[in-house]
Amino acid sequence: MTDQPTDRPEVRRPARRRPSRDAKLVVGLAVVGATVLFAIFGPMLTQDPRSSDNPVLVPPQPGHWLGTTSLGYDVLAQLAEGARGSLLVGVVAGLLAIVLSLVFGVVAGYARGATDEGLSLITNVMLVIPGLPLMIVVSSYLEVRSLWVVAIILGATAWPGAAVVLRLQARSLRSRDYVSAARVAGESTPRLLGMEILPNLLPLLTAQFLFAVVLSILGEAGLSYLGLGPNGSITWGTMLNEAQGGGALTRGAWWWFVPPGLMIAVLGCAMSLINFAIDEVIDPKLRQAPTAAKLQRKARKAGLDITSPAHDDDTPRPAPASRAPDPDDHKERVQA
Amino acid sequence: MSTLEVRHLVKDFRVRDGLRRGTLRAVDDVSFTLAAGRTVAVVGESGSGKSTVARMIAQLETPTAGEILLDGEPIGRRGRALARYRNQVQMVFQDPFASLNPYHPVSYHLERPLRIHGVARGKEVTPAVHRLLRSVELDPPEVFAAKRPHEMSGGQRQRIAIARALAPGARFLVADEPVSMLDVSIRLGVLSLLARLQREENLGVLYITHDLATARHFSDEIVVMLRGDVVEQGPSDQVILDPQHDYTKTLLAAAPDPSRHGRLRDEVRAELAAQAS
Known about the structure:
Chain A: Keywords: Cell membrane, Membrane, Transmembrane, Transmembrane helix, Transport. The structure holds two protein chains of two kinds. By secondary structure, chain A is mainly α.
């Protein structure tokens, strides 16, 4: 139905006007890249984030480009140090989640039978346990929490969603002829998984990894905000926690809580943009979706009835004739 | 002389329809013997179980009952015995667009069986790959070795799949409808290639097809299958020229016959004229 309005010149829309997959990818990569650079080089260029030798609670000004906190910490320096902490937690947790989802997803999908049942059961149990409460319970149980411990807790709770997706894809891939052909050629099971199935899972794996990273950064922020984050480290989450404790909101110190909040939001958006671009590579149908939606809106505005299957002319037709004119009609006529 | 023998092969699949469970007998009591240098054709319509026979011989499915004998010995299903079996018995799949991993170049597809079965090692591998490519008439081999599956036509892909099957030095080849996904114009070329390789390597070929004409042309024996059962079995000419079972007769009648072409056209014209009047 969606490709029919393109026959009409007035509703045709040039493909280049919509934000392309490349635009999403470029913007996403640029923002993530800038954040990573900020995390690497920021702390070198700013002052000591743990130095309170500053005027207290001053708004943004030269020298303190993002102001200071109620204890005299420089917000920009903390933001840069926090970027390191948050990204480290995100990447470590994301990697752990991907490794776990590979074991529980791909192995289960490939093995089938009892192995599949067992691994799927664990995945499903983990899937229905609400993530944040579990993290809170585990974190509050541990007295001393380093950045790494928090990352491991987050990674160990972020994998089941990815495992479900990967299991289904692996099930589909394992029955492909090229996997059978490799088996006939004599490949071992680990090689079948690693060399035949895994490469074809890469786009999906990348998407799931980015998703796990976003989830972990958000999870870390949530934990830290509740005071259950890593002790002694600075992350965007601990900054928000301190801003809350220091009464930033009631004192109107927006420069204290807006930057870390914004960084989390922007980084999450950027990673999602990259994910959208990857999704469109995996499923080319998504590429047409925005155009199709626009075409429908436009057609509706132009007063076209696009809900009926036969809208090639205005008069409604009886059901059997409403089938779009296809080349077969033509063929039948020629043969007769 | 080496033989691959199939005795009373049976395959049941478990099926679920809603809450009901049952078994579907895809293959019921199939027996035949494949000898080196000979071709057996298994003919039947879709769903007749002929591909399941192929997959059982390639050890992609385990038979529910019956046995497969290689040179009179029951075949190994695990470990080194399985590796030895794979060395001897290889398979060409129906769809050349699905049977090559889109991620790997041609050279990878051919190198792996060479390495796994110890046919070539180290520096010998690349020349061996080139020899294989030349043997399936893909010249120049350097160009084709570097290509990825999506850069080639269906016929070229199927030639790669044949080369891969020959790489371990197999003595028996299971060809599961090797040309049914290819354009009619290139089918004969691929079939002739298979026939030539069979002569040169003295291969035993199991040719799965739904096309009785090519089955007669390329095979010594024909097995006709219908819904898992063997309905007729015998030397090719005997099955084609003197079909005993109704189903074989139907299959033969459905195949276009060049010698009857003129009469058929006249019949159609007469029918059309009758309709018009």
